Amino acid sequence: xxxxxxxxxxxxxxxxxxxxxxxxxxxxxxxxxxxxxxxxxxxxxxxxxxxxxxxxxxxxxxxxxxxxxxxxxxxxxxxxxxxxxxxxxxxxxxxxxxxxxxxxxxxxxxxxxxxxxxxxxxxxxxxxxxxxxxxxxxxxxxxxxxxxxxxxxxxxxxxxxxxxxxxxxxxxxxxxxxxxxxxxxxxxxxxxxxxxxxxxxxxxxxxxxxxxxxxxxxxxxxxxxxxxxxxxxxxxxxxxxxxxxxxxxxxxxxxxxxxxxxxxxxxxxxxxxxxxxxxxxxxxxxxxxxxxxxxxxxxxxxxxxxxxxxxxxxxxxxxxxxxxxxxxxxxxxxxxxxxxxxxxxxxxxxxxxxxxxxxxxxxxxxxxxxxxxxxxxxxxxxxxxxxxxxxxxxxxxxxxxxxxxxxxxxxxxxxxxxxxxxxxxxxxxxxxxxxxxxxxxxxxxxxxxxxxxxxxxxxxxxxxxxxxxxxxxxxxxxxxxxxxxxxxxxxxx
Length: 493
Ligand code: GAP
Description:
By secondary structure, the protein is α+β, with helices and mostly antiparallel strands. 28% of the residues lie in helices and 29% in strands. The strands form ten sheets. Strands 3-11-12-20-17-16-15 form a seven-stranded mixed beta sheet. A five-stranded mixed beta sheet has the order 24-23-25-28-29, sandwiched between helices. The chain has a three-stranded antiparallel beta sheet with strand order 5-4-8. The radius of gyration is 27 Å and the shape is globular. Bound molecules: glycyl-adenosine-5'-phosphate (GAP).
């Protein structure tokens, strides 16, 4: 199994990600997030919003609609330029991106070996006849059509009549909702440059070759910031747009490492002239080392004043900021950090995944940052046949659930329950046992203490129930386990 297969299988088995419409055979290009996946996804979005919007004084939020006036897509250039070159197999009808058709292994019926079928590695010639791929890489038989441009936007109709006047598109990026609201936000908030507008929301692209699990799908979610700067200003000797571009590249890298991505798994990629989008002066991608190779996790583009000028031209409305000092209108430049929620989630999953050996057994653990972990605390009864233990565990879970995402599980023996929580990345387990509740038949009072087990070290401490909320507040709001745990006696593992 490849590293990706392992994660796909874990995601399905433990309820992170399911294939959309699976009972009908699935779509292969859209994905559904299960009970744990939706928590992980919400946590990623929550910390991103908190760190980049709520904790900064220079960024405000927006939630624009997915369906917009069709003129938006003419002005933005998406109608004319948001295309990929596509080729079709005349035999099996499969469709490929012309620029990626040689990036996959190809099927070859080799005449030098009496027509035997081989799968030849991507981009390589057949080692028997020396020929390179000319036919369809999948079926190995059909000719490919000449490339033609294929627009990636999903077309739809607004209103009950399917005529041209009502055609619109599902947005392929959240950014345009921000540009068309630039003046609304400026008037409502009276911001001065530089300032940003952030948005998290769904985007749709009719990708020719979706794949690699949730890495490239047709429906996905973006976390985007349009950071508006005054191009006439200089900051630290640099034009403001270039200064802020560099800062955003550094801030975005730091954000991923803060939440657990190994810095060695991140790398920058500078777009060369041929790669740059039609609107960009400079774009730098943050790549992550995914199982299929280094691939784009997010992009940070300097979009200049392209979008605001285009929308001003097409709408007839001025989209400028008034510089009170110079008494002149300025069209801001835009620096755009644009991240995909689904790709971030995949990277966090892959980076957290570990297989370890513990006393001769294999343990799978997701070492999620506590802020991202879907469940923060699992409350487990040691014996489910003892009603006092079960009742105490339920009561504790309900109390902790007022502040954190919790879970109660009594469907296996304790060792198995711990392994299950390790596998989904739960940082802390609380175990209620006989000593906690005592034994009324024997006249023994409980000590009202529970065992807390930490996921990564697997260390256990014995803690009074009365301390639990204070202790978890420390642990889940930045406290380190060794220091917090040092105040309590160790429990045997
Ligand atoms: N507004 C700029 C923009 O949309 P992009 O590089 O096309 O730029 C930004 O997309 C991010 O959105 C990507 O870095 C990636 O994380 C995510 N993304 C783009 N297409 C995607 C797809 N088909 N499936 C999943 N995520 C995608």
